[in-house]
Amino acid sequence: MKFRTALILFLALVSGLPATAQTAEEVVAKSLAARGGVARLKAMQGQRVTGKISFGPGAEGPFVVEFKRPGKFHMEMTFDGKKIVRSFDGKSSGWIVNPFGGNLEAQAMSEADVQNIREESDFDGPFLDYKAKGNQIELAGKEAVEGKDAWRIKLTTKNGDVRFYFFDASTFLLVKWEGKRKADGKEYDVESFFHDYRDVGGFKYAFEIVSDSPGTDQSQKILVDKIEVDPAFDEAHFEKP
Asked: Using one digit for the tens of pLDDT, what is the confidence trace for 92-123?
């Protein structure tokens, strides 16, 4: 009788355990597989993204972003006929042209800007070879994002910055990001939501990204028109504009 009671208790406990328990490493591995697979991601040499970006009514325009190994980056955004350009050579030099800030000629980036663009230029993302990059990951639970369950992963960079990434519990594609951004000497909370995933050459990309800063009126929406994998590049784009 005691054995039967113990067995019933054991079965009740086991049946109550989550059937899809995950570790941070498992979630990250599945997310990389969902994106296209580690081997194929590492084999990719570059990509070009074109589309439209909006910061609100009257502040929207086309953009193009190019990434090329090792760490090269070029971005152009056009508003009211004025073009903002940001370039990085993948080493230590970056430049910016911002007519809205009074810079009609290319200006050298500050050390802080170079550090930021160095991270932006890593199109692999922070999870591919995260240990080699000095990043740490931790499973921070499971919660609903826009009505769907998602695994919440805490990522701490080698610089001590903390971000949270939410991966759909079914597809393991990224659906939300939470972090902080600095602007005008202040730090703001920022969150981004990733929608409309499409297949491009066997890789999965979000074609809509909506961002905002809780507690402020700041918002941003990116609508991607086209993504090219390993296109031909003009190497001059990654030098001083």
From this structure: 899 999 998 888 889 999 988 888 899 899 99
pLDDT for position 183: 63
Q: Give the number of other CB atoms < 10 A from CB of residue 117.
A: 20
**Averaged pLDDT for residues 212-230:** 92
> Residues near 236 by Cβ (< 8 Å), separated by ≥ 6?
none
Q: What is the pLDDT of residues 173-191, one digit of tens each?
A: 999 999 987 766 677 889 9
Please state the pTM of the whole predicted model: 0.87
Q: Which amino acid is at 16?
A: G
Helices (H) and strands (E) in the chain, counts: 4, 13
Alpha carbons 132 and 126: distance in angstroms, whole number? 10
Closest CA to 203 of 125, 88, 87: 125
Locus of tokens 């402020």: 216
Distances (CA, A) of 75 to 5, 33, 225: 67, 28, 15
Q: Which of 79, 128, 126 is nearest to 100 (CA)?
A: 79
* Cα-based torsion angle of the residue sequence 226, 64, 90, 42 in order, rounded to the nearest 10 degrees: -10
Residue indicated by tokens 């230029």? 121
Q: What is the greatest pairwise CA distance in the chain?
A: 86
pLDDT at residue number 14: 44
For residue 126, what are the CA distances in angstroms to 121, 136, 143, 220, 240? 11, 10, 22, 22, 27
Residue 104 carries which side chain, given as an amino acid letter? Answer: L
Full DSSP string of 163-220:
EEEEEETTT--EEEEEEEEEETTEEEEEEEEEEEEEEETTEEEEEEEEEE-TTSS-EE
